[in-house]
Amino acid sequence: MATTVLDNTYFDTKVFYETDLDTGPFTNISSGSCNVYSITVLNGGNANIQYLKIYDTSEEITTNSTEADYVFRISASKDATITFGTGGLSIVNGLTVRMVQGEAVSSVDDPQANIVAEITYS
């Protein structure tokens, strides 16, 4: 897995880019509060529906029991871009994300193939 965060003085936004988003959470990638403007998920290599789970927390989560604040269904074998308009999706405490095969809170099944995800936030 390769995680890149683009953050410099030339842009108003930051980009989180992950080449293997899976059930292991990426905790507080925003280092505090933020607004999420877009999420792009490349799911072409997975024959199953995937679920992007977003948690508004800077703390570690328990993957099989912490309720996600937002859950986005990503269709099987499809790529998806989710946008939140000019105001963005407000995250108060910290942006934590993970990807699983099941919608249930207890789901811990990794995607079959690597998921590439790009999250734009400020």
Give the end-to-end Cα distance, rounded to a whole number of Å.
23 Å
Helical amount: under 10%
Class per helix and strand makeup: mainly beta
Q: Mean pLDDT, as a whole number?
A: 93
- Main sheet, how many strands, which sense, barrel? 6 strands, antiparallel
Number of strands: 9
The CATH level-2 architecture is identified as: Sandwich
CATH topology: Jelly Rolls
Please tell me about this protein's structure:
- The chain has one domain: Jelly Rolls (Sandwich), CATH 2.60.120.
- Strands 1, 2, 3, 6, 7 and 9 form a six-stranded antiparallel beta sheet that branches.
- It has no helices and nine strands.
- A hairpin with a 7-residue loop joins β1 and β2.
- It is an all-beta fold and 122 residues long.
Brief summary:
This protein is mostly beta strands and 122 residues long.
Based on the model shown, name its key terms.
122 residues; mainly beta; Jelly Rolls; 6-stranded antiparallel sheet; 3-stranded antiparallel sheet; 9 strands
How is the topology of this model organized?
Elements: E1 3-6, E2 14-18, E3 34-42, E4 50-56, E5 70-74, E6 79-83, E7 89-91, E8 95-100, E9 116-121
Antiparallel strand pairs: 1-2, 2-9, 3-6, 3-7, 3-9, 4-5, 4-8
